[in-house]
Specification:
701 residues; alpha+beta; Catalase HpII,  Chain A, domain 1; Rossmann fold; six-stranded parallel β-sheet; 19 helices; binds CIS-heme D hydroxychlorin gamma-spirolactone
Length: 701
């Protein structure tokens, strides 16, 4: 029986059209388009395959069915071999300070220049469907559609890298990804293969410090820095080169979560980071970063303790300050995840005139890898024709044909020179030229001498952290190595840490219960132990000054004080804080004024790990009800254990007790909220983000 026999039904307060088998549709309006095949043929029935009789066999001639299934079967493309899980957004870049003295790049030339941008953030090791808060590096890839072509700055949220030479990249990636026989662990470095490779490759040690720090578990993409990592060159109109390192500094300040929290967020909301970006942009709270540059010359490069071509080293901001020259604003989410976020193809080779490469062996290797990988991933050489990848400036060339060619040269000439006077010509004035660096040398497979210092900056990173952050680093090493089944590998890592910081090494050894302390790993170059601490390397020294854009979870029940709730909403709004009400039922609660206030979440689906701080304002009866609910108990206990600020109303005490908070545990991070004016004080306190003093009291092991 065909679907043209439709009836109208009402479900709830909405009216639908229903076919004979119960499939329910929107009621077609005048402007509802007709469903067609890919050939534009109108479809009469999309519910039933063509059959010989209602209960008979399906017919091969049903081309609509075949086309639909064929297309579905081909929906997947290979996921990225690294950075498979990512999330993108559109925005713009605006130049706020001209670098015209240093570079001919127009995007960096005239103050006020604005170009469209697309940014894709990612994790590295996990598959496309893995979770957001893995302990991992985050990709921070920026595509600027400039008037001189696309400039891709394909960076990370960490300014250094695991390895120095691109030839080691496949080994490093194989080691960190799931082990090839078992196929696990997914999206984690906490396994033997990774630590085996890392402990046998001392060049990884500086990066290990960063990924064991809270940098690897950011609170959101919005609250992390980005780095171009390599030293690039800027080249000006006279052909003079200046070295440059690129930085993205978040206006929102830096913030991370704690490890136990990350583990729980991954279960409660595997999409935590992408949801945060989506929601902030769609609510009009546009994340913003400043573009910073560290500019330096050969004189600095020659006297610097390390090689500027070595991607496992950074240049402390105290030595070369970061000059802020622009801003990147993300103000539009994608229309289609696949078309934009999945198909966007970043290539480190995409630079514009006035920006050039250095001989960093990691960068040189990347320039091959990205083009190669996009060709495979997107199915051929014409991936640049996909709208998200196409430049927004005019482009003309004689490249033609290939799979899915969307634009071919027009007319007779598909080569040059030609005598038909047709087609584009090269332009020696505006065209891209490599930097005219003098190059000579014997062919060899070696690295620069200074590349061999693997510990000095690792130590500098560690000594630059606050005691809280140092503890987190130690705990992360202990956690990861405790998942490592081979004791010899654990000891090898500790042997490296002895060259970084003895206290750290001892703390890790103790945490692992290592019976015998290994000897320090032999260093290829004597580490410099006197590098001064550098404040920009710490997250906690660079936190936000406001609670803006952060999320407050508020536990409410029937009978919650309406005045207290109103005061909370007002104080939060003034600060730009997002409030989510968590209740026994998502339909909401009746507050003391008799109004039904809808909730954002039911308690079972909203653990406190999803919030930056929490408020407990149940009524007395509500608190009694929630003491019998395990997820409410966890809500309180976790907020306490994760050193969060907790505001509590007059009737919340039984809930605090149920969450394991004894009267002796009450500290300055747990704030009574009695009068509406207390709410403003509470929100102001939350600007500190965490009450770190509590942490030591909650982690005895
Ligand atoms: Fe890479 C993707 C960042 C070293 C080879 N890389 C990729 C992405 C980012 C980075 C952010 C995701 C881009 C996106 O969102 O689509 N990669 C880095 C940084 C590195 C680095 C900051 C060191 C400083 N990468 C690196 C090396 C190689 C690669 C040494 C190979 C020799 N990277 C790739 C790749 C990927 C990639 C295989 C996978 C998917 C893709 O390119 O588009 O070509």
């Amino acid at each position: 029986m065909s679907t043209d026999k439709r009836t109208t039904v009402t479900i709830g307060d909405q009216t639908f059209e229903r076919g004979p088998q119960g499939a329910t549709h929107q009621v077609a309006k005048g402007d509802t388009p007709t469903l067609t095949t890919q050939q534009g043929l109108a479809v009469s029935d999309d519910q039933n395959t063509e059959k010989a009789g209602a209960r008979g066999p399906a017919l091969l001639e049903d081309f609509h069915f075949r086309e639909k299934i064929f297309h579905f079967d081909h929906e997947r493309i290979p996921e990225r071999v690294v950075h498979a899980r990512g999330y993108g957004a559109h925005g713009f870049f605006e130049l706020t300070d001209s670098l015209a003295d240093y570079t001919t790049a127009k995007v960096l030339g005239k103050k006020g220049t604005r170009v469209p941008a697309f940014v894709r953030f990612s994790t590295v090791a996990g598959a496309r469907g893995s979770f957001d808060i893995a302990r991992d590096v985050r990709g921070f890839a920026v595509k600027l559609y400039t008037e001189e072509g696309n400039w891709d700055l394909v960076g990370n949220n960490i300014p250094v890298f695991f390895i120095q030479d691109a030839i080691k990249f496949p080994d490093m990636v194989h080691a960190v990804k799931e082990e090839p026989d078992s196929g696990f662990p997914q999206a984690q470095s906490a396994h033997d293969n990774f630590w085996d490779f890392a402990s046998l490759s001392p060049e990884t040690v500086h990066m290990l410090m960063w990924i064991m720090s809270d940098r690897a578990i950011p609170r959101s993409f919005r609250f992390m820095e980005g780095f171009g990592v390599h030293t690039f060159r800027l080249v000006n109109a006279e052909g003079k080169s200046t070295y440059v390192k690129f930085h993205w500094k978040p206006k929102q300040g830096l913030q991370s979560v704690v490890w136990n929290e990350a583990v729980k967020i991954n279960g409660a909301d595997p999409d935590f980071h992408r949801r945060d970006l989506w929601e902030s942009i769609n609510s009009g709270d546009f994340p913003e970063w400043e573009l910073g540059v560290q500019l330096f010359d050969d004189e600095f490069a020659d006297k610097f303790d390390f090689d500027i071509l070595d991607a496992t080293k950074l240049i402390p901001e105290e030595l070369i300050p970061v000059r802020r020259i622009g801003r990147l604003v993300l103000n539009r989410t994608v229309d289609n995840f696949f078309a934009e976020t999945e198909q966007v193809a970043f290539c480190t080779q995409n630079v514009v005139p006035g920006i050039a490469f250095t001989n960093d062996p990691l960068l040189q290797g990347r320039n091959f890898s990205y083009l190669d990988t996009q060709t495979k991933r997107l199915g051929g050489p014409n991936f640049t024709h996909i709208p998200i990848n196409a430049p927004k400036c005019p482009f003309h060339n004689f490249q033609q044909d290939g799979h899915m060619a969307m634009h071919n040269p027009k007319g007779r000439a598909n080569y040059e020179p030609n005598s038909w006077g047709m087609g584009p010509r090269e332009n020696p004035q505006t065209g891209y030229k490599p930097y005219a660096e003098e190059v000579n040398g014997r062919k060899t497979r070696e690295r620069g001498e200074l590349f061999a210092d693997h510990y000095s900056q690792a130590r500098q990173f560690y000594t630059s952290q606050t005691p809280t952050e140092q503890t987190h680093i130690k705990n992360a090493f202990v956690f990861e190595l405790s998942k490592c089944l081979t004791p010899a590998i654990r000891a090898r890592v500790v042997a490296h840490l002895l060259n970084v910081d003895e206290k750290l090494a001892k703390g890790v050894a103790e945490g692992l219960r290592l019976e015998k302390m290994p000897a320090p790993a032999p260093a290829a170059r004597t580490p410099l132990t006197d590098l001064p601490a550098s404040n920009p390397l710490s997250i906690l020294k660079n936190g936000p000054k406001t609670f803006t854009g952060r999320k407050l979870g508020v536990l409410v029940t029937d009978g919650t004080d309406a005045d207290l709730l109103a005061a909370l909403m007002k104080a939060a709004e003034a600060e730009g804080t997002i409030v989510e009400l968590v209740a026994p039922a998502v339909g909401g609660v009746k507050t003391t004024d008799g109004k039904l206030v809808p909730a954002g979440q039911k308690i079972v689906g909203a653990p406190s790990v999803l919030y930056d701080a929490v408020v407990l304002i149940p009524s007395a009866a509500g608190a009694k009800l929630l003491t019998g609910e395990a997820t409410a108990r966890d809500f309180v206990a976790d907020a306490f254990a994760h050193a969060k600020f907790i505001g509590y109303g007059p009737d919340a005490k039984p809930l605090l007790a149920k969450g394991g908070i004894t009267p002796e545990d009450m500290d300055d991070g747990i704030i009574p909220l009695e009068a509406p004016s207390d709410l403003k004080t509470f929100i102001t306190l939350c600007r500190k983000l965490r009450f770190w003093d509590r942490e030591a009291r909650t982690h005895a092991v």
